[in-house]
């Protein structure tokens, strides 16, 4: 079993490949690293030179195909989740205090104002010209789907070299004929031969502003960090992008709605209970 690690998108990326040492394996590892770096340079809201940052500044750009595709996936998710998964949450995130990379956020500080942030803004994609235009007053954050998109791209690249696993800080995908044992935090060990896992929760990325607990999972209905009886949701799906969307959507819905959704998931409640649902 070959292993390769590097950092990208604010987290450790772990690659496992069931193959022999050689040029094919080395080339596959390098190609995955370059793909993560390429997508981060395009999709990061924390990099002023990224195409996403340019779009947020200017309101309209001619976008590279991957930015167009990731945004299209995010808008499709917004439509089918009734607005719960929404890429136009950047202003609400910034207002909550998540206005820089997480490791730079002060654990406790004064707030930067309240009110005024809105979600649900219009986004127009012109597929013929490749242009993207934002409704005035709205800005994008693709962190809720961009990492999953990178994981899905990585598993396709690495899978050419053999059975493999890609883990990007909890966004995880596997590919192979034999099952991979994958342990879920506070839950069972699953055997997956194909598919992905993603987790959304308020127990890792949280801080305090004006004496109030804040976290990074915004409820677009209120433009504030979500108030829910769940602490964390881990979802199993066919691809990492889909797992990302489902994990956040179930988290915002709360325990009973998540349990009724018939999605394979582990729910961890605010009072510490653990519940397997969706046939998991």
CATH superfamily, please?
A: ApbE-like domains
Cα-based radius of gyration, to the nearest Å: 19 Å
The CATH class:
Alpha Beta
Beta-sheet strand percentage? Answer: 25-35%
CATH topology: T-fold
Helix content: 25-40%
Low-confidence stretches: none
Give me the count of strands. 16
Number of helices: 7
Tally of structural domains: 1
Largest sheet, spatial ordering of strands: 1-2-7-8-9-14-15-16
Span from first to last CA?
28 Å
Structural class: alpha+beta
The arrangement of helices and strands along the chain is EEHHEHHEEEHEEEEEEEEHHEE
Tell me which CATH architecture applies here: Roll
The average pLDDT score comes to 90
Question: Can you walk through the features of this model?
Answer:
The protein is of the alpha+beta class. The chain has a single domain, classed as T-fold. Helix content is 31%, strand content 31%. It has seven helices and 16 strands. The protein has an eight-stranded antiparallel sheet. It has a three-stranded antiparallel sheet with strand order 3-6-5, with helices on one face. Helix 1 packs antiparallel against helix 5 (143-159) and helix 5 runs antiparallel to helix 6 (240-253). The longest helix is centred in the first third of the chain and has 21 residues, at 23-43. The protein is globular, with a radius of gyration of 19 Å. The two termini are 28 Å apart. The model has no long low-confidence stretch (mean pLDDT 90).
């Amino acid at each position: 079993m070959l292993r390769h690690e590097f950092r990208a998108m604010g987290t450790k990326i772990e690659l496992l490949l069931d193959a022999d040492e050689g040029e094919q394996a080395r080339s596959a590892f390098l190609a995955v690293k370059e793909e993560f770096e390429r997508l981060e340079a395009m999709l990061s809201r924390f990099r002023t030179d990224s195409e996403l940052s340019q779009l947020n500044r200017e309101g309209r750009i001619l976008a590279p195909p991957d930015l167009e595709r990731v945004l299209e996936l995010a808008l499709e998710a917004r439509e089918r989740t009734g607005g719960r998964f929404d890429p136009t949450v950047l202003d609400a995130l910034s207002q909550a205090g998540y206005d820089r990379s997480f490791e730079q956020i002060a654990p406790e500080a004064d707030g930067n104002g309240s009110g005024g942030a809105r979600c649900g803004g219009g986004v127009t994609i012109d597929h013929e010209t490749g242009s993207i235009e934002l409704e005035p007053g709205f800005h994008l954050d693709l962190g809720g789907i961009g990492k999953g998109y990178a994981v899905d791209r990585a598993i396709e690249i690495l899978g050419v070299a053999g059975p493999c696993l890609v883990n990007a800080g909890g966004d995880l995908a596997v590919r192979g004929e034999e099952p991979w044992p994958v342990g879920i935090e506070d839950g069972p060990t699953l055997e997956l031969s194909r598919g992905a896992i993603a987790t959304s929760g308020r127990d890792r990325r949280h801080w305090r502003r004006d004496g109030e607990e804040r976290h990074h999972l915004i409820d677009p209905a209120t433009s504030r960090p979500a108030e829910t009886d769940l602490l964390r949701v881990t979802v199993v799906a066919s691809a990492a992008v889909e797992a990302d969307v489902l994990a956040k959507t179930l988290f915002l819905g709360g325990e009973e709605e998540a349990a009724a959704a018939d999605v394979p998931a582990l729910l961890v409640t605010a009072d510490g209970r653990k519940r397997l649902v969706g046939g998991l």
